[in-house]
Write a structure and sequence with these properties.
Elements lengths: L3 E9 L5 H9 L17 E7 L2 E7 L9 H16 L2 E7 L6 H13 L4 E7 L6 H14 L4 E4 L8 H11 L17 H16 L8 E10 L5 E9 L2 H8 L4 H18 L3 E9 L7 H6 L10
Parallel strand pairs: 1-3, 1-4, 4-5, 5-6, 8-9
Antiparallel strand pairs: 2-3, 7-8
């Protein structure tokens, strides 16, 4: 029996549910999921198996109007992920409909969609009535020639199996690209850093989450089977350091506990996690930081 394997890019506005869908498809948490927009920075790949097909998901950053260098690099990565994929899935939130952002994405899709299979996934369908959903489906299909339309709830799992089965049929015939037991092509050090960054994003407010980054400095495998992980949280200003630490270190302690618990569950063994906060004013202007996030520094140029 022949096997299939290929890349599927999930694109859409920030908060459309791309990371939630990726994690649901893969069956494990490989992408950062928060209530804040623009939290996915790198093109995180999750690997799902459906029958004889291996589907490699590219979870791109949300497409939005970029303002800073980091924003521009993220948007360039999103379009790059779509342009390189065998199949593209555009995710639209049912309750938000055709926003100006969705219209911009559809314009961009016209450039990269030629000769590529593009499907539509209308997410969060539980938030609207059936007539609204049907009207939105018609409107979007009038604007772009989608190969297929799926009504889903990434959070609850509705319609996700049907989408995965369809994608399994669309990827090209060929050998599998990754070992059967591999669910992501990111190094564990980066997944660990993303987990800590997610916890910070959930606890901190307004702009600060976008002014920090997390790096896994050391990862030591210990004789008792546990892992000792040291991470550095880089912030842009002195004032931000105090916010991350919190009153009497309460914030950093809570973040550390939450991240340690999730890492322990993810790895299936004990984790000793140590966090430090350092000020690095220009980290958003350092090419090395971008390459570590899977982004191209040059794409951030205005």
């Amino acid at each position: 029996m022949s096997t299939r394997a290929g890349f599927v890019a999930l694109i859409g506005e920030p908060n459309a549910g791309k990371s939630t869908l990726l994690n649901r498809m893969v069956g494990a948490k490989v992408s950062i999921v928060t209530h804040k927009v623009q939290t996915t920075r790198a093109r995180i790949r999750g690997v799902a198996i459906e029958g004889d097909s291996q589907i490699v998901f590219v979870d791109t950053p949300g497409l939005f109007q970029p303002r800073r260098r980091l924003d521009r690099a993220m948007v360039a990565a999103a379009w790059g992920g779509a342009a390189d994929a065998d199949v593209v899935v555009l995710m639209v939130e049912a309750h938000r409909g055709v926003t100006p952002g969705v219209e911009r994405i559809l314009e961009g899709m016209a450039q990269i969609g030629q000769g590529r299979t593009v499907s539509l996934a209308i997410n969060k369908i539980d938030r609207v009535e059936a007539p609204v959903l049907l009207g939105l489906t018609q409107d979007l299909n009038d604007r772009f020639d989608f190969a297929e339309t799926f009504m889903i709830s990434a959070e609850k799992g509705h319609g996700v199996d049907a989408l995965r089965r369809w994608l399994a049929e669309q990827v090209p015939e060929g050998p599998w690209l990754y070992p059967e037991d591999q669910i992501a092509d990111l190094p564990m050090r980066m997944i660990a850093a993303e987990m800590t960054r997610e916890k910070l994003t959930l606890r901190l407010h307004q702009e600060l989450p976008y002014q920090l980054t997390v790096e896994t400095e050391t990862w030591e495998e210990r004789k008792d089977g546990s892992a000792r992980i040291e991470q550095i949280i880089y912030v842009s200003r002195d004032g931000h350091k105090g916010i991350v630490l919190g009153h009497k270190g309460e914030t950093i302690k809570a973040v550390s506990q939450a991240s340690r618990a999730e890492l322990t569950e993810f790895l299936g063994r004990k984790v000793h996690l140590f966090l430090q906060v350092k000020v690095r004013e220009k980290w958003q202007e350092e090419a090395e930081r971008y390459s570590q996030m899977g982004l191209d520094f040059k794409d951030g140029n205005a």
